Amino acid sequence: MLDLAQLVIVGLVVGSIIGLGAMGLTLSYGIMKFANFAHGDMMSLGMFLAYAAVTTFGTGGVGPFSVGWTMIPALLLAMLGVGVVAAGVDQVVYRRLRRRGSSTISMAIASLGIAIMVRALIQMEWGPSPVRYASGINRAWTLPGDLKIRPDQVLIITAMLIVAVAVYLLLFKTRLGKAMRATSDNPALAEISGIDTERIRAATWVIAGGLIAVAGVMFGIQSQLKFDAGFEFLLPMFAAVILGGIGNPWGALVGGLIVGISQETSTYWIPTGYKTAVPFVLLTVMLIARPRGLFGSTV
Predict the structure, then answer these.
(1) What are phi and psi of 143, to 5 degrees?
(2) Which of 142, 178, 205, 209 could bridge 87 with an S-S bond, Cβ 3.0-4.6 Å?
(3) Residue 148, strand partner residues
C-alpha cells in the first residue's frame, strides 16, 4: 500500500500538469468550437522558451528547489511568447478559415498542420536530444507514512492551485471573463450585444497559450525537456477535457487529476509500458457512459 500511495503522489503531480494544459484546451474549444491539435506542441514551445531564458540568465537553484529565481521571468516569457504565437496563428490561419465559413473538421486539420510545423521548428532550434532546466539531485522530503515528495513536485502542485484560482477570478470577476463566457454560450448574441467577438477570441488564444506554457514549464521542472513531449500529452489532455465536460475549465482540471492519478497508479497492477493506454480507456468509457462529462459540457 505504501507503493500505491507513492504512485498517487506522482499521479497528482502529473495530473496537475495535464489539468493545467486541459484548462487552456477547453477554453479555446469552448469559444473556437474546434479541436486544437496544436495545443500539445505549444506546450513544448513554452517549455523550450523558458529553457532559452533560463540558460541565458542562469540555472542556480534556490533552497531545496532545482530551479532559481530566474525561472519566474522565464515562465512569464514563455507565457507571453506562446500566447502571442497562438494569437498570431489565429490571425493568420484560423480567422481566415472562419471568414470563409470552413467546417470544424477543416479547422482541426489546419491545427494539425500547425502542430507538425511547430514541432519541427522546435527540433530544428533545440535539437532532438532531451535537456534539463538544471542538473543535480533534487532531494525528496519525507511525509508521514514514509512517503516521499520532491520540493519541485510541491512547486508544481502549488502552481496548479494558483493558476486555477487566477482563472476562476478571470472568468467570473472581470468583464473580459464575462465576455468570454457570453461568446462561448452564443457568439451571435454576444456580437449583437456589442461584444467584439474577434477581440475575445484573440484574448482567449493568449490565455490558453499562457496556460499551456505554464503546463510545459512545470513538466520541464518535473522531467526532461523533449521536442515531442507536448504531443505525448495531447491525448491525456483531450481525455481530461472530455472526462470533465467540454468547455468546463474546472471539469478539465479535475479530469486532468483523475487521468494523471489513474495513469500512474495503474502501474501498480500492469507494466509501466501500458500506462499510456489508460487515457484511451478513460476516454472510451466516458464517451459511452457519460458523453457530456462528469460536470456537464457547456458546448
Answers:
(1) -100, 165
(2) 205
(3) 142
Mean pLDDT (whole number) for 156-185: 90
How far apart CA 228 and CA 233 sit, in angstroms, is: 9
Greatest Cα pair distance in the chain:
60
CA distances from 235 to 86, 96, 144 (A): 19, 27, 34
- Report all structural domains of the chain as residue ranges with CATH numbers, in order of start: 2-127+149-289 (1.10.3470)
Is the pLDDT at 299 greater than 60? The verdict is: no
- What pLDDT score does 286 carry? 81
Contact by Cβ (8 Å): 53, 73: yes
In contact, 152 and 221? CB cutoff 8 Å: yes
Specify whether the CB–CB gap between 130 and 224 falls below 8 A: yes
Task: Say whether pLDDT at 192 is over 80.
Answer: yes
Under 8 Å between Cβ of 114 and 89: yes
The proportion of the chain whose per-residue pLDDT surpasses 90, expressed as a percent, equals: 48
Query: What are the CA-CA distances from residue 79 to residues 63, 214, 217 (Å)?
Result: 25, 7, 9
Question: Which residues are CB-contacts of 170 (< 8 A; sequence separation ≥ 6)?
Answer: 176, 177, 207
